[in-house]
Amino acid sequence: MEFHIDRAKVLPKANVWEFLEGLKRRFKLIAPVKEGEKCSYKEISDVTTVELSYTRTVLPPKKYLLPYRRERFSYNPETMEFKTFNSIQEQVIFGVHSCDLHGISILDSVYLKENPDPRYLEVRKKTILIGLSCYPDEYCFCLSTGTAFPDGANWDLFLTDIGADYFVSIGSPKGDEIVLTLKNLFREIEKEDLELYKRSTRKKKEAFNRKELPDLERISQLIELEYDSPVWEEEAKKCLGCGTCTNVCPTCFCYTSVDIPDLEGKEVKRVEFVTSCQYPYYSLVAGGHYFKPTRTSRFRHRYYHKFVGFPYQVEKLGCVGCGRCSSECPAEISIVRTIKKLRGTDEKELREAVK
Amino acid sequence: MKKSLEKLLNKPLPADPFLPQKVVITDVEELAPEHKKFTFSFLEPSSCERWNHIPGQFVMLTVPKAGEIPISICSSPTRKGVIELTVRKVGRKTEVLHSLGPGSVVALRGPYGNGFPIGIMENHNVLIIAGGLGIAPLRSLIWYILDRRHLFKEVYLLYGTRNYSSVLYKDELSRLKERKDIKCLYILDRLETPEDEEWSQGREGLITDLIPEVSLEPKETYVAVCGPPIAYKFIGKELLKNGYPESQIFVSLERKMECGIGKCGHCQIGYKFACVDGPIFPLWDTKNLPEMI
Predict the structure, then answer these.
(1) How many angstroms separate the CA atoms of A323 and B213, rounded?
(2) Chain A within 8 Å of B89 (Cβ-Cβ)?
(3) Scanning A65, A139, A191, B201, which has its CA 20 to 30 A from the CA of B277?
(4) Domain residue ranges in chain B
(5) What confidence tens digit (pLDDT) does each residue in B131-184 have?
(6) What is A290-314 written as a DSSP string?
(7) Which positions are annotated as binding [2Fe-2S] cluster (chain B) (predicted)?
(8) How deeply is B267 buried, as exposed, middle or buried, from its count of CB atoms within 10 A (0-12, 13-18, 19+)?
(9) Architecture of domain B1-112 in CATH?
(10) Given an 8 Å threshold on Cβ–Cβ distance, is A256 in contact with B290?
(11) Do A270 and B264 touch (CB under 8 A)?
């Protein structure tokens, strides 16, 4: 639908900075910026700092929808009068890769399907997502998770690199409006552009090393079948329990809430923090019973929730194949390698076992 | 854009489910050491009328300055006007709550969770099994059944706890023992005083010992169980041994909860969330969900 020839436009690469400038005039502009070796999403003041060809940012764009520390409301402990905060600005997140767009769509399902969270909905309504095509590196496995392309996710514009230009797909009325207001920067689509677009899609598919990709067919069943596999303990032995994998994950949504009184005790703020299922107190209940007492049980829980829990809750895998948990893990635990080990198809391991 | 997702985003802003409502503590009763029963009333009569819950559901109670805690409702929905919560002093938040007296204003939101399947329990026998503090959520069910007694067949209550001093709702349970429409069997871990002896009529041991004493047709019976996590395995095994069908045994599970509406993730049991898919689960689920009991 969003690729319909009448809808799509072409943005010459020479006009990109002007396009970003146009966005910045109207909205709070958030885009990836290079910082040392790595990239991260930042609020942009100078559009020329925006990074257009990057593989992944350290943290996913989720931090602008669900801040890592957020205030829910405040109350007066004497009268129990509640005050909510409303200061949500319209923002545009530019340069979001396909996997992260899918990640945001999964968060949309979690936060909006049942018992919708009004704050998330408000932020989400005021957020415009502009996607950008990318090429995989050794950690990416979005082709296996079915999130390598933006189809099926929730976005407003998607820019696909087709050489000298960007092929711009329009995914929502909001996206259409942006194109209309900046229409002198775009040109109409030609037959050749469509060919180039198809070629770019093919090129991305070919950029994956198919042998390295995990087989995610019936992955929910695999995780259930291998629930008692020794692989969990083997991998969890390496795990430091630091929670990095969940903090950098574009779909992890667990949080913890704390009431913090001010110094005079006149006002109490309820603050929510991102937490991690990898922390021991995560499932501790009153009276001191741990439901996930060992590191192995917590380690396994992350996989179980991603591949069995999410499909049950939102009918999609909770993993979008962005590779962040593997690339950022200080203990070099790889989600792909764990899955391969569970399937019994990690060739390197097998080779070593034969020796 | 996917049709389903487009729909999600085009919704109007809902009322904030995280905002609690003000309630006032009208009564505090000390049930046993470290255990108190709090009675709450809404400050606005309209919220009071709107309040309706199912036995087995819970509320998120905001203890001023301390934070929010999930507590099972121990009053029956058939008795309107008040909400009762029985709270054991186990941590910082419950300690602050225990220091509050009548007249204190707190806040709560809910009711949350699925509750016992009271609709399908109708026209059947009901066997209620409570261990320790597990009697609290079941008290809601007991009074619900007794207030609509004609809808149910035989009713049994099995209650096991440490000793007489740790028995909750002592008067209420003693009066229940005298009623003809409910059969009550009580047991204590160890009989040390004459009071202990009198309360349990000489029964000493674990709650599972009472199950063979129940004379009900298992196929016609729904079972409601609540107790400490360790007890479920043994109670479940004993019930199955006595012929109760797995799909008719319901257990109430305890988990850490911070939101009550499936957003914070703490209460995950396997692929389910205790707050929205539970806290009442059929025993059948415990076979399919790892780490359940």
Answers:
(1) 58
(2) no
(3) A65
(4) 1-112, 118-288
(5) 989 999 999 999 999 999 999 999 999 999 998 999 999 999 999 999 989 999
(6) ESS-SHHHHHHHHHHIIIIIHHHHH
(7) 259, 264, 267, 275
(8) buried
(9) Beta Barrel (2.40)
(10) no
(11) no
